[in-house]
Specification:
Elements: E1 7-10, H1 14-25, E2 30-33, H2 37-46, E3 49-50, H3 54-60, E4 63-66, H4 71-79, E5 93-96, H5 102-113, E6 118-121, E7 124-125, H6 127-133, E8 136-141, H7 144-149, H8 151-157, E9 158-165, H9 170-198, H10 203-211, H11 218-229, H12 238-254, H13 260-277, H14 285-289
Parallel strand pairs: 1-2, 1-4, 2-3, 4-5, 5-6, 8-9
Antiparallel strand pairs: 7-8
Helix pairs in contact: 1-2, 1-6, 9-11, 9-12, 9-13, 10-11, 12-13
């Protein structure tokens, strides 16, 4: 199996911190960088080597996993002040595990290739708990050589790996399709539970029945219990899923397909953000659905 040496994680939010834990548990020398001092402190407490900049991390690693919010943040950590791209050695690998537009990744590949840096498009799914357990699902697109070099790394992060292509951007399409379903299922689940409560049903019993019936989904089972409990601590923030379903509507428009359910979910998540819940867990769409204006 290939040996890749020290591994960096840029962006140690809920998912990124879980990745740090999984890599350390698997025995990787793990480096970390985040703008937030509390995230730096937590990564260091786990045993990661923390860095004052993305460039400093890149100087110490041959592979870096980027898990930031969006394309603008990727550009900043790679090409901004003290960005990683300027410090990587030749033949380093950048793994983008953020959910971003396929066209962005297609354009990013030649920018990195100009500096002899390979790009692997490898978005992940499963949430912070699975990230910490090394049990995520990963969709992977990139050159065979780069994917092979990262094989032990990916095995530490994910229980299920799907090699979906050789061109960066292809894996992003799979992730966007998945997140379209996640957003629609979550919005519909919150709506159904809001209806159940208005109709006088016990919400906990509704969850039990739905989870054992044809209307159940992974995201309903995961989110609705904590929505009922009023637990909106962000594992995956509302604004992130709103961003992802927007990517789905943009991909649909580019391919000439109507997506009325995705558009409805996008509107619902945007309304949830407008109600002040953008930084809360995406289960907060239930709070919007049961709010005073509903």
């Amino acid at each position: 199996m290939p040996t890749i040496g020290p591994v960096g994680v840029i962006g140690t939010g809920a998912m990124g911190m879980g990745v740090v834990q999984s890599l350390l548990r698997a025995g990787f020398v793990t480096h970390a960088r985040d703008l937030r001092p509390d995230a730096q402190t937590e990564a260091a407490s786990l045993g990661a080597v923390v860095h004052p900049s993305a460039a400093s991390l890149a100087d110490a690693c041959n592979v870096a996993i980027v898990l930031v919010v969006d394309a603008a943040e990727i550009d900043d950590v790679l090409f901004g002040a003290a960005g990683a791209a300027s410090a990587f050695r030749r033949d380093s690998i950048v793994v983008i595990s953020s959910t971003v537009a396929p066209d962005y990744l297609a354009a990013l590949e030649p920018r990195l290739a100009a500096q002899a840096i390979a790009l692997v498009d490898a978005p992940v799914s499963g949430g912070p708990a699975r990230a910490a357990d090394g049990a995520m699902t990963m969709m992977i697109a990139g050159s065979a050589a780069a994917r092979e070099r990262c094989s032990t790394l990916f095995a530490a992060m994910a229980a299920k790996m799907f090699h979906v292509g050789t061109v960066p951007g292809e894996a992003a399409k799979f992730k966007i399709v998945n997140n379209l379903l996640a957003a629609v299922n979550l919005a519909a689940g919150a709506e159904a539970l809001a209806l159940a409560i208005k109709a006088g049903l016990d919400p906990w019993q509704v969850v039990d029945v739905v989870n054992a019936s044809s209307g159940g989904s992974w995201i309903f089972a995961d989110r609705m219990p904590r929505a009922i409990s009023g637990d909106y601590a962000p594992r995956a923030a509302t604004k992130i899923l709103a961003k992802d379903v927007t990517l789905a509507t943009e991909l649909a428009a580019a391919n000439g397909i109507d997506v009325p359910f995705a558009l409805a979910a996008r509107a619902a998540f945007r309304a949830t953000i407008a109600a002040g819940y953008g930084d809360q867990d995406d289960a907060a769409i239930f709070k919007y659905m049961t709010g005073p204006n509903k």
